[in-house]
Amino acid sequence: MTKNSPYPGKLIAVEGLDGSGKSTQIYLLKRWMEMQGLKVFFTEWNSSALVKEATRKGKKRQLLTPTTFSLVHCTDFADRFERQISPLLRAGYIVLADRYQYTAFARDSVRGCDPRWLRSLYSFAAIPDITFFFDTPLAVSLERILSGRPQLKYFEAGMDLNLADNAEDSFRIFQGKIYDEYKKMVPTEHFVVMNGMLPVEKQQAMVRKYVEQKIDLPAFRWRGKR
User: Fold this and answer.
1) Which of the two residues, 27 and 159, has the higher pLDDT score?
2) What is the pLDDT of residues 122-166, one digit of tens each?
3) pLDDT by residue (tens digit) across 53-96?
């Protein structure tokens, strides 16, 4: 669902599985925009200083139910939205988000939360002007993550769902279910689908070209910048 943004700024989000390459692409886009002298701000999922300690303790002690897990992440998101995202959009910045509400729609649905409840929970959030979904084959994403992780964390692997007896198998099943949820959202949330198997440089060129077509970037330059 889309709606006209009430903000002078623009919001660009990236979504995809862990290991899909989305974080690399949003970082490269941020650096490129900074070099263009644009007013840009970056935010990432689950990074609120206010909520961080409570989230860490809850995960460490394995105290979080699917509902409380969802509410903790929504609290984190709400704090960042009210303190960072919304004020900067009002100030005329381009805000880049590494994951947005769609991460919750996918992950929390897999954990058994009602999709309608989730969308109601995040109804305060602005709809991104552009949401890129980096569609990378599940096997490739998993290989990238598993090769770089000495050990998978309990909730990261979806062990709370009793999907498998070991973390790696659980992670594979969990990520597969999340991928299915993302694919369902492609048409309904108007994702811009990017081929995550293309070379990094080619993906970035395509991302920049799309952004340039949809957003009047010169309007976001700092005064005095050409």
Assistant:
1) 27
2) 999 999 999 999 999 989 988 888 887 778 888 888 888 899 999
3) 776 666 666 667 889 889 989 999 999 999 999 999 999 999 99
Tokens of 11: 């919001």
Task: Report the CATH number of the 10-214 domain.
Answer: 3.40.50.300
Report the distance separating Cα 125 and Cα 160, nearest Å: 28
Token pair in block for residue 134: 């980096």
As given in the structure block, the two tokens for residue 92 are 């005329």
Parse the chain into domains and list their residue ranges.
10-214
Of residues 20, 213, 9, the one with CA closest to residue 99:
20
Q: Which element (helix H / strand E) includes 131? A: strand 130-135
Q: At what angle do helices 22-35 and 200-214 cross, to 10 degrees?
A: 60
Helical H segments across 66-199, by residue range: 66-80, 86-90, 101-110, 115-121, 138-148, 167-188
